[in-house]
Amino acid sequence: MSAFRERLEKKKQAVELALAACLAGEDSVLFQAMRHAVLSGGKRYRPLLLLCAAECFGADEAAALPFACGIELIHNYSLVHDDLPAMDNDDWRRGRPTVHKAFGEPIAILAGDALLTLAFEVMSGAPGPAELAPRMAEAAALIARNAGALGMIGGQSLDIGFRPEAEAEPAYEEMILRKTGALIISAAEAGAVLGGASSGDRACFAEFGKRLGLAFQLRDDIDDTTQEDTRPGFRPNAAAFLGVADARTRLSDLVRSAVRGLDKAGLLTEELRALALLLEP
Question: Are 177 and 212 in contact (CB under 8 A)?
């Protein structure tokens, strides 16, 4: 394993341990459901992106780790609620029964609520000297905005009843930039904020996150189309109406332009390049 991949793996292990610590303690049904949602694997893409962005500017990992965990807790809360019968009505997540299938719908709703509030409890308790407090407050506010009605939740509301085959591509892109892209943009930009990046460098990371957010969803759409388009009730997505070949081309263009943008600004690290290239088909 290359040195930078080893560094990414160490960061992932640190995230896993920190998430487990956040969810330790009680053995109530609610906490069991929360652990079921979060500690069942996953790419940990968003926390890794945040940690790598913060590291790019010399931020201390101990100070950035609570924000990495916070953004992953928010992501997992959104998955718990997405899977509910009133939303996507999914039975399986990461090879396991979804939370509402394993614990019932009322507990799933409460587990999602609890994960969201825990995210901000964890971020508010991040360690660091007093002079870093403004950066931490700004990073938390950024994540909150992008997780809410103007970001992820707003995108989810646009997704209700959305039919890609009946919409123009810009409308689809707007929905994805909010539903999927908002937390990925948050991860990249908040990492830069925690590291004290200049406004110009922060904007570069926000653009990097934007392109990765679009690519992330497009990669999921391609995988869904090639694996599940014969499933009863399958809902066409961008890859279905663009065509898989064109979707793959678009995905590669997004990933490469994301990498070029950071490279041109002198901000690209091996770890950030690797995270971008993970999205290529």
Answer: no
- List 92's β-bridge partners, or say none: 97
The domain locations on the chain are 3-277
Q: Calculate ∠ Cα 241-242-247, nearest 5°.
A: 135
Exposure string (b/e) for 231-244, b if CB count within 10 Å is 16 or more? Answer: eeeeeebbbbbbee
Task: Give the model's confidence band at 233: pLDDT under 50 very low, under 70 low, under 90 confident, else very high.
Answer: very low
Output the six-digit token pair for 267.
């901000």
Those residues with Cβ within 8 angstroms of residue 102's Cβ, 6 or more apart along the chain or in another chain: 33, 36, 96
97: three-class secondary structure by DSSP: strand
Q: Is 32 exposed, middle or buried (0-12, 13-18, 19+ CB in 10 A)?
A: middle
Q: What is the DSSP letter of 93?
A: E
Higher model confidence: residue 167 or residue 83?
83
DSSP secondary structure string for all residues of 235-254: PP-HHHHH-HHHHHHHHHHH
Q: Is pLDDT above 50 for 193?
A: yes
Measured CA to CA, the distance from residue 269 to residue 10 in angstroms comes to: 16
CATH class, range 3-277: mainly alpha
3-state secondary structure of 92: strand
Collapsed DSSP state (helix, strand, coil) of residue 268: coil
List the helix and strand counts (H, then E) for the chain: 14, 2
Task: Decide: 139 and 63 in contact? Cβ < 8 Å.
Answer: no
> pTM for the complete prediction?
0.94
Q: What integer pLDDT is reported at residue 160 of this predicted model? A: 86
**What's the gap between Cα 210 and its chain centre?**
12
SS3 80: helix
Query: Taking the CB of residue 9, how many other CB atoms lie within 10 A of it?
Result: 12
